[in-house]
Amino acid sequence: MTRRTAAALLTITLAGAIAGCASGPSPDLYQTFGGQPGLVSLVDDFMDGMMRDPDLRPYFVNANRPHIKAELVAQFCATLGGPCEYKGMDMKMAHARYGIGDHEFNALVQDLQDAMDLHRIPYRAQNRFLAMLAPYRDDVVHLSNKPPAR
């Protein structure tokens, strides 16, 4: 595990404890991510990273990636305080059949951080965003289901 991954795990683990103290979504945070154009570009790079990641590629290789990217942009926009409304599936339902474990979840967090670094999102804003996403972890990780063939 890299130091960066360890830091990501610590951020996700502590996010629940600090969520009450951290500020939530705001138009300023949304603008820090570049507004809608910035989120589209971020999600493009995030998906590219997941497709290069041998642990995550099997989950996306046969998926409707344009649809997933559009859903992620809407979800990220709404989470950050932008003028969007996420109307997609709830996270538990969307991920239940995939057998996503901690290893895959941590790889996803790492790929998201790499994309945010590529876009020069300040670490403080990254940490705020990760703290906002942290509550979804339990809805995404489902060890009892079979993962896609690798």
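That was protein one. Protein two is written in the same sequence-then-structure order:
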Amino acid sequence: MSVAFNKVIVAFDNSDESRQALRLAKEMKVAQPETQLIMAHVSEEKIVETVTEPNEAAITPPSFGAYTVDGLQVPPISLDNSVSEKSTHAKVEKSTDQAFYNARKEMDTMGMNVDYRLLDGVPPASLCKLASEEQADLIIIGQSSKTGIKKLFTGSTVQKMVENAPCHVLIAKL
């Protein structure tokens, strides 16, 4: 008995686990070229402020003394070009653009036509909703990397997907 999946959703968040799901989807597309792939990423971008220490020494301004203008003594203008002690930089974590770029790079190597979707909300609910709307036959998701206390309190994304998905769920293991 051969099962054909016509529409497959691949959950991709740029993690190692989701890259494994991507590889499985790629193999499936090669074996069944008529399969429609939807690459879904649930936006979880965070902007994190990081403090950095300067790696340059401060520039010491030259001393010019005082100048006279119409008989008045004027102190020199400060040429303070010192480097601040610390600075902050914004860094985007879990970048949506980076995730889609990496997924496209992987899929475009074989000229595969893939539909990319950006979703909002909680990953299991958003992915299940998309699967229902698209009448998907399968969702491919990477094995959850949560362990211990974090898994106990937040639950496993994979477990929630298996319980709530309107279609089959394939778990890609590393």
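Helices lie at 16-31, 96-108, 123-134, 148-154, 157-164. Keep this in mind for the problem set.
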